[in-house]
Amino acid sequence: MKTEVGKFPKLVVVLVGDRRDSHRFIDIKLEACEKVGIETLVSELPENCTEKELLDVVSSFNDDKDVHGIVVQLPLPQHISEESIMNVVNPEKDVDGFHPLNIGNLAIRGRKPFFIPGASKACIELLLNHGVEIKGKRVAIIGRSKIVGLPTSLLLQRHHATVSLLHAYTKSPEQITSQADIVITDVGIANIVRGNWIKKGAVVIDMGYNEIKINF
């Protein structure tokens, strides 16, 4: 990486609390960074830290010229506003792509965000690398989280897909999914999509985090 850009980029991951799933996701990030030569630092705060303490930590990394990327690991404890924290991350260091400026630019045709949410970009790459045509296709996304569902819908529209975003108040979701060429789930609930919801030849991608008990 230093050979290509003249320096070692540095990513800081800010973790609040001790969630097992958060540690797992961070380990994946650190492993990926190590493979491509990106320096990393994990800044850990206790779960009972105040919102101001977290804001101060993020702001300090915004001002640090040796830090090129910042990830605030989600979810945060309930007493901390995720929106307030995401808003304070420098958009040029917001490698998750969750800052309103980055999401807004993703939504507006002709504009380019500094970063695109990684899960959404991975979904598109998965489709393209397997030769799945996106342009002109109907896509049903189940779930509208700001981490996956919403940015994925925006990115698919950039690829000229017709997107339906389904949520808890959507009536007859099976009627929508049964007409979709591509179905993407983002709800973290195993078996939420039934076989009779999917038309023959449709592509299904589960982007949720599910645990399934298997009896041997």
TrEMBL record:
Domain Tetrahydrofolate dehydrogenase/cyclohydrolase catalytic, chain residue ranges per copy: 6-96
Swiss-Prot/TrEMBL keywords: Hydrolase, Multifunctional enzyme, One-carbon metabolism, Oxidoreductase
Keyword Hydrolase: yes
Enzyme Commission number: 3.5.4.9
Keyword Zinc-finger: no
SUPFAM superfamilies with a match to the protein in the record: Aminoacid dehydrogenase-like, N-terminal domain, NAD(P)-binding Rossmann-fold domains
InterPro entries according to UniProt: Aminoacid_DH-like_N_sf (IPR046346), NAD(P)-bd_dom_sf (IPR036291), THF_DH/CycHdrlase (IPR000672), THF_DH/CycHdrlase_cat_dom (IPR020630), THF_DH/CycHdrlase_NAD-bd_dom (IPR020631)
A molecular-function term among this protein's GO annotations: methylenetetrahydrofolate dehydrogenase (NADP+) activity
GO annotation (BP), single: tetrahydrofolate interconversion
Domain of life: Eukaryota
Gene3D superfamilies: Leucine Dehydrogenase, chain A, domain 1, NAD(P)-binding Rossmann-like Domain
A cellular component term, taken from the record's GO annotations: cytosol
Enzymatic class: hydrolase
Residue ranges constituting the Tetrahydrofolate dehydrogenase/cyclohydrolase NAD(P)-binding domain according to the UniProt record: 117-212
Stored PANTHER family: C-1-TETRAHYDROFOLATE SYNTHASE, CYTOPLASMIC-RELATED, METHYLENETETRAHYDROFOLATE DEHYDROGENASE
Quaternary structure annotation from Swiss-Prot or TrEMBL: Homodimer.
Name listed for the protein in its UniProt record: methenyltetrahydrofolate cyclohydrolase
Source organism (scientific name): Trifolium subterraneum
